[in-house]
Structures are given as structure tokens and as C-alpha cells.
Amino acid sequence: MADLLALSSRIIDSGHTDQPVNRVTNELSEVADGIAMVESFSHCVALDTAEGLVCFDASGVHTGQAVRAALTGWRPSPVSHLVYTHGHADHVGGSTFFRDDHPRVIGHENVAHRLDRYDYTNNWNLIINNRQFGGVAGDLNLSVGGGDVGVAVEVAPGAKRFLPSSTLRPDETFAHRHTVTVGGEPMEFRHARGETDDHLWAWLPQRKALVTGDFLIWNFPNAGNPQKVQRYPLEWARALREMAAMGAELLLPAHGLPIEGAARIERVLTEIAGALEQLQHDVVAMMNAGATLDTIIHTVKVPADTLAKPYLRPLYDEPEFVVHNLWRLYGGWWDGAASRLKPSPDAHLAVAIAELAGGAEVLLRRAERAASDGDMRLACHFADLAGWAAPDDPTIHGGRAAVYLARRKSEPSLMSKGIFAAAARESQLVVDRNGPTGG
């Protein structure tokens, strides 16, 4: 049983992270009298009451069984209540392993809508999940958190589900605020939009404890994921400030380490809120001045010393992606370049540019030169143009794959790594299919 509070205090106070803070061990640690945390891809926070265990989140389908076993090893009591901080698959998918306890499931009223959407867009979620996490297993080590993570579950030959059909749905929902008392212990639930529109955070007044879900993930807030639905940075920041004002002595997140001490908790929450608020302010100010998305993306930055804080490192999401999400929230999908309002197909444009340049090989060589100069953004533009202009050429696509693998290595965030790794795999398939041994 790790001393998680001592570890988090040392890291926060020193500002130095010398080991992973998001660990998938499925091991339980009792962090206070009658309060435990199982560290998993999404943690499960458990409260021992006279009526049974109250659990916050069930982790995902791939870790839920181990999480439930860890709880049994701590307390033999059944789970009387299961609270969803939100409906992301890595928080609710493991609920199938809690079914035998027949818990009362509590969540925001939008959780059910989310689960319905996952059914409706099942294959899309499998595709984007594979792209976001496929090929980056080594990076998942325990340095991520706050993601809409599911696992493909076989339900019939050739059929897969993003979320198992046995996932428990809420029995008790609310819109804004809700209080329940279990075993004589009151628990206050408050809704706020942040990473999702169905998120809650909990205040346990007798324990002076916060259960924050993904409002705190010990990474830069997942407020800009390029493949997922809208996030809400300003409302996220407001929720963090509301939590900071509670005077909590214990903070229990769904990813990362628990935190103890009112001053330490207030500092962490307000610094994360401040980073989101500053991004929001800078983006909207430039939008109000008439700037294009291109200009804003390459102008608005978060200071390096802010991103160096142990709980704000951009190892999963990135500030640049949050800029995109803010533009989408306030400005729509068009980026301000007239030619991209109703653009030519990528392949059509690429062929025309290749004709002007002297062939796809010239474009690839330009990509390789940019990569050797360290300009990976420009390198990827030319690599894409070359690939689109020569969609079946194994030589071109071998070069494109090499550019994207190099780009992947240079990126800090798992989201970027996943997408760039997927681009490399895409071109490698062309090589395998059309190379000397591919036909």
C-alpha cells in the first residue's frame, strides 16, 4: 500500500516529478480512515459507510474486475452506491463487475444521453480510440488520465462494442445539485460542465473531502481533445474555483494522486483554473479583434513555467488543442481562410501542386528537408501532399511514414503521438500492400 499523500505532497511542494503520477496498478491504498483509492486507468474512490461502500467510478471494462477485487480485499461489504463522476467509458465500463452488489447508481442526467450516443456512434468511437491510443502503449504507462477511453468488446463474430451493453445506467439523476445521505453521512453532488457536459464533483462535509473526477487529472486539462466532442474550459475553471473555496483537507481525483492540506489543494485548483482562464481570455480577445484561427493558434501560448508544474504538464492534452476547442465553442468550424470554406479535395489539390513542383517525389524531398531542419510542422504538410498525390506509391508512403514517426517522437502529448503514429501506420499499409512483396 503506497503512501500516496506523502508522494503527492512531496511532488507538489518541490515542483519536481521524479516518478509517474498516473499509475495503473489496480492496487488499493487507504488514504484516510474509511476512504480508499484504487489506482487504475480511472481510479475508483471508495467510502466505507454503515450501509456499505459508496464508490465513485468503476474504472473501465478492462480494469473493473481487478478494481472490484481490490475493494473486496479492503472491505467485504457490498457496494451500496456507485456514483459516476461522468459517463466516460474508463469510468463506467467497469460497472459490469459491480452488478452482483445491485448498487444504486447515481449520476448527472446527461450520463444516459452520453451512453446512448456511444451506442449510436459505436464504430466511430472505436476508430478514434484506436487512433488516439493505438501504437502508443508504451506512453500510456501511467502518465495519462482524463480520457474517453474504451476497449473494443467482442459481442458477436465481427462485431465489437465501444462500451459493454452490461454497463450499469444511473438509477438516480439530477440537474444541478443533489444531496444523498448514506449510513448517516451526507454527500453533496454538484454539476459543472468541463471535460464533459455530464460531470459532477462531490463534497463530503464530514470528511472535508472533495471527489473531483476528471476536473483534476495531473496533466494539462483535457479541454481540447481534437477527436472528441465539445469541452468547456471557462466553466471548468469556475468549478475548480468553487472547489477551492470549500476549504477541503483531502482531494480525491479520478486520475493522478490524492492531495492533502487545505493550502496545497487551494493552490493546485486555482493554478489550474488560472491557466484555463488565461487561455480563454487570450483566445477570445484575439477573436474579438478579428484574428483568424491560424493567427491565434500560433500566437496564444501558456508560459513554460506553468506547463512545468507537476499537475499541468501537457502529456495528454495540449494548450494548442484547447485553443481549437475555444474557437469551435465561440466561432464555429470555419477557420477564417476563404479557400477552406468549400475546399477542393485534398488529393485534387495535392496532384495539382505535385504537377507544379515536378512530382510527388519533389514534395517528399521537401518534407524530408524540413524534417532535417527541425520544422516538423512543415515536414508533415509536404509529406501529406506527397502521399495524397501518390496514394499507391510505396516509396512515397515509406517516406511519409518515416516523417510521421519522427514527428511522433518529437511530441510531448499522448494525443499528438497517437494521431501521428496512426498516420505512419496508414502509410505503412500502402508500403505493405504495394511494395515489392505486396503485389
Descriptive account of the structure:
- The chain has two domains: 267 residues, Metallo-beta-lactamase, Chain A (4-Layer Sandwich); 91 residues, Alkyl sulfatase, dimerisation domain (Serine Threonine Protein Phosphatase 5, Tetratricopeptide repeat).
- β4, α2 and β5 form a beta-alpha-beta unit.
- The chain has a seven-stranded mixed sheet. A six-stranded mixed sheet has the order 10-11-12-13-14-15.
- About 4% of the residues have low confidence.
- It has 16 helices and 15 strands.
- It is globular.
- α7 runs antiparallel to α8 and α14 runs antiparallel to α15.
- It has 439 residues and is of the alpha/beta class.
- The termini are far apart.
- The chain is 44% helix and 16% strand.
In round numbers, the mean pLDDT is 94
> What's the architecture of the largest domain, going by CATH?
4-Layer Sandwich
Percentage of residues in helical conformation: 40-55%
**Total domain count:** 2
CATH superfamily of the largest domain, called what?
Metallo-beta-lactamase domain
What fold name goes in the CATH topology slot of the largest domain? Metallo-beta-lactamase, Chain A
Tell me the major beta sheet: 7 strands, mixed
Summarize the structure.
With 439 residues, this protein is of the alpha/beta class.
Topology:
Elements: H1 4-14, E1 27-32, E2 35-39, E3 44-49, E4 52-56, H2 64-74, E5 79-83, H3 89-92, E6 104-108, H4 110-120, H5 122-133, H6 137-140, E7 153-156, E8 159-161, E9 172-174, E10 177-182, E11 185-191, E12 200-204, E13 209-213, H7 233-244, E14 250-253, E15 259-260, H8 262-288, H9 293-297, H10 304-307, H11 319-331, H12 346-357, H13 360-372, H14 376-389, H15 394-410, H16 414-434
Parallel strand pairs: 4-5, 5-6, 6-9, 13-14
Antiparallel strand pairs: 1-2, 2-3, 3-4, 7-8, 10-11, 11-12, 12-13, 14-15
